[in-house]
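Let us walk through a complete example step by step. Step one is to write down the protein sequence. Step two is to encode the small molecule, flavin mononucleotide, as a SMILES string so that its atoms and bonds are unambiguous. Step three, shown after the inputs, is the structure prediction itself.
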Amino acid sequence: MPRFNRFKAALGQFFQVAFCIFDRKFILMDIKKCLTTRRSVFPEQFTAQPVDKKDIEEILTMANWAPTHKRTEPWRFKVATGRAKDELAEFFVRLYKETTPEEKQSGKKAEKTRLKVDKSAAVIAICMQRDPKERIPEWEEIAAVAMAVQNMWLMVNAIGLGGYWSSPSFMDQMHRFFDLEEGEKCLGFFYLGHHEEESTTGRRDDIANKIEWL
Ligand SMILES: Cc1cc2nc3c(=O)[nH]c(=O)nc-3n(C[C@H](O)[C@H](O)[C@H](O)COP(=O)(O)O)c2cc1C
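Step three: the predicted structure of the complex.
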């Protein structure tokens, strides 16, 4: 390549990188590292630092890129922060008391339920909106939502935040708290926050035991 063209290419690359960094589009983390260091980080591990709304928007924008059969895009998210989060904590405690037989109730457990919400910077309800025409089976819609959650979980890891997907038994009662649309279901909650811990080593059984080569 003539020297001038090489210079032009290098200059172009420099500006591309500079613009990418400016736009927060730089590579946040190597993809393998992001996949293997993604962990469930629990509210007890969160610091009191709030999470920027911009970060939550970015996380959910990445969720929106999940694959989806017939483009139904069934994932719905309800983000509770501030007062809405306090109300959610109250509601969770009420549900715990309602759904646990009196003799089995423990004040400690009720308090733990509240604390989990209190300690989170945001609690994001993970919902699935069934296609109104039911063009695809429900399991495919749930699978698409799970893929959206994986996207968001990886993004959470990439930007140094923590969280986990919680699926309490009372999530089928969430129509009493949210204005769920016809065909919309709550599949759990993503507790989100800042943390200062190193990623723990995950544990998985060997993939070789789960593959059949034909
Ligand atoms: C659909 C789904 C529901 C989950 N529900 C819960 C839950 O209710 N409580 C909990 O402690 N962890 C829950 N988890 C998180 C798992 O416990 C966690 O992913 C698993 O232990 C592996 O740990 P890792 O995420 O750090 O790799 C859930 C994960 C998924 C995918």
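Step four is interpretation. The two ends are 47 Å apart (CA to CA).
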